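Re: Re: token formats

Sure, here are both.
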Amino acid sequence: MMTKAKIGILISGRGSNMEAIIAAARADDCPYEIVLVASNNPEAAGLATARAAGIATFAHPHTGMKRAEFDQLIDAQLRAAGVEYIALAGYMRILSEAFIDGWAGRILNIHPSLLPKYKGLDTHGRAIEAGDPAGGCSVHIVTATLDDGPVLAQAEVPILPGDTPESLADRVLVEEHRLYPATLASYIRSTH
């Protein structure tokens, strides 16, 4: 039987992508297990979801802490849990370069645009405003430059007449929940 890779998931909110990863991890042939869900927001709804699934959680507010200091705190928790790979799932903090260097090639993120288009925030509104025929999502390896690491997989979602950023976001989210767990699994199979 294969040894499953240990995953840590970082969230800041409801954790819907985290839920999709947790659901995928229940399959016998999934190459990973989630050993920790950590958050910079002790009120994040996803923490209760993770606890209900029997997954260890850690939360600490980042307010009043320097970025590097907070990242060291999260890093210590991840390493203590034996984490081998990190999945960012709606984690709304920019990670310090030292943190990223320490986990080089082992942090994945899901971003709600077809990278390299629309890095950062308000991706759906920007795609609609530009008249793009499609929006979508990308799973990429995290590097020190925001939303810039190598793209592992993408899913395209057509932009429909009358779409709002919210309606497009809802349809893209469905694809995120499909794409992220599958891409995480294939990346781990190829690197673990």
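Second one below.
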Amino acid sequence: MIFFTVYAASCLVTCGKLFSTLFFGGNHYQLMLIIGALFVLLYTILGGFLAESASDFMQSIVMIVALVVIVIVGTISAGGLGTVIENSQKIPGFLDFFGLASPVVNEAGEQVVVAGAPIFGAPAEYTILSICSCMAWGLGYFGMPQVLLRFMAIREEKELKMSRRIAMVWVVISLSVAVFIGIMGRQVFPTEHLTKSASENIFITLSTSSLPAILAGFVMAGILAATISSSDSYLLIAASSVSKNIFQGVVHKKATDKQVMWLTRITLVIITLVAIIIAWKEDSVIFNIVSFAWSGFGATFGPLMLFSLFWKRTTRAGAIAGMVSGGVMVFVWKLLISKLGGVFTIYELLPAFIISSIVIVIVSLLTPAPSQEIQDDFDSVMAGPQE
């Protein structure tokens, strides 16, 4: 519930940036944030899970078309694919395998522009610390509820291979296109969006400046579709964890469907208000918010998923201790330990994941082993189907 609320906040930041850029030239972010939050909240309350399920497919089609259109139009505006690659090569360190581009920024955090061109310093070294932080992102997948649900929904084990291929092809395409749009945007609009927060508006700027109004509106709907399809999922999962798992599952097991529904709606409102508070700063960076929520899920549930699948000595006490320690360590590392600098600036998911794993092992060994029945079930699953 905590980390899905953070995820919902990243979606509200997107709504605030989209509406403020489209209607007020980047001003009145907080007002647009509130309007966007109300829109998403009403959509989720009125439609519920049915609206989410029915709309996700159509929204994905809109998003794919929007990405393809902007890549084509942006490439043409930038002078062609060759020109985009050539300009990327001129940025020191940008295309180096072990280098990082270093924009020169002023005291306000804006990149310095001279003679209409953004200035870059000497390339920074891509250190072992940076490599470990980037690779640690992969650990997050083990604890993502929205990702794990896809595995749980598979019809047959043999379909996993095809699913993996489809997923990897889409991920490679979507991420490559996203990065390419950023590269084009820096070339087409070299003097705009000079801060980390503002740079996330480049998709909007490319759309409104390069496309006819009606087509630009369709592309903008792609951004809104992405936001809605994500935010309604996050809000519903977080609210249902309170109403179904805690209220009906623990507090009031005889609760009626109507009581659960009203508690779900109340929880939706509360979560949305908290998400608004998280997203309130106008210079919020969507990537930073998402990375924190990602680390939270990865460290809280990731180690437990792996130990539950591959170590039959895992106990209930070890599972709870691992979840708590992983989730708490994400906050402690991000808000306190990382301030020490140096090696402590590593992405908080990695140390929190390690701590959670250690706690699961120690607590499980210190507590009574699972029942023989559970261990027999574990062994039978690991042995696979019998002829």
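The CA atoms of residues 10 and 288 lie 9 Å apart. Residues 127-153+285-387 form one domain.
- S.
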